[in-house]
TrEMBL record:
Residues 24-278 form the EAL domain. It comes from Comamonas antarctica. The chain holds residues 630 to 914 of 914 of the full protein. This is EAL domain-containing protein. It is found in: Membrane.
Amino acid sequence: LAKNDGRNTYRFFDQELKNVMAERAALEQDMRTGLDTGEFYLVYQPQVDLHGQVIGAEALCRWQHPQKGLVSPAVFIDIAEKSGFIRQLGHWVLEQACKTLRGWRADARLSRLSLAVNVSAQQFHHPDFVPQTLALMASSAIDAERLELELTESIFAQDVEQIAEKMQTLKALGVCFSLDDFGTGYSSLNYLKRLPLDQLKIDQSFVRDVIADSFDASIVAAMISLGESLGLKVLAEGVETPEQLEFLRSRGCRLFQGYLFAKPLSEADFLASLRQGPAGAGAQA
Ligand code: C2E
Ligand code: MG
Ligand code: MG
Ligand code: MG
């Protein structure tokens, strides 16, 4: 766009912005009705240990829009967060995850699997979050030890004592906590020290270039030893290649999630994949 066309350019962007806003408002409305009409569902991405053995899964939310098809979580989670709808959606996700865990409970092979659920900062900070979650745990009759909640560094905007207290209430039941997308937000070592976390999830943006970029390689190695020395489990996200896996293992990482092992799957496909034994390159070790 030419410089001497400044006014038209402005008008163009103004119109674009209005379109984007209208589109987001429409999606927000669609989301509210879509949650009631069954357009949302969960998929399950396996998490594996050093032997490629599946130890659990992360539940990820999907939205099948009647006209637009599958909408990316990057789009709808963002809209849900900015509109406050995330609290309702997040609770629904937690409810579904508990139903799934309840279903696994009777099967000896499945009852030891953990299920991780993403909890957004806004959802976590709301005064109803802990009581609602406690009520859900009580009514769904699951083994609380099997449920893992993933928090991101965006929760750190609030008072650390208050966050720790909420976490403790749920941990008393056996619920575990992971710090998701570790390294991408406002991490402070003070938070790592003062929050009762169980696991760090190294963000996929660091894992992606771990072979080509020596800076990322150093960061990842440091994250693994930091987690280890703080007594936390460390899981690497977004593992796509055997070379990345080998690097991570050589630096002491023991838990993995990524396309190398499996993409997020329907529950049926996830359960079928368990019957096939060790997954990905881990099987050859
Ligand atoms: P996340 O929690 O960090 O989840 C991991 C994302 O990485 C997922 O994207 C997953 O499909 C993707 N992924 C897994 N392995 C690989 C890999 O090897 N390579 C690459 N390139 N990507 C991989 P997805 O499902 O699109 O979700 C994106 C984000 O949306 C999630 O990131 C999470 O922050 C958010 N999200 C999804 N479901 C929920 C939910 O129920 N509640 C909340 N609050 N957030 C959710
Ligand atoms: Mg996550
Ligand atoms: Mg993540
Ligand atoms: Mg992520």
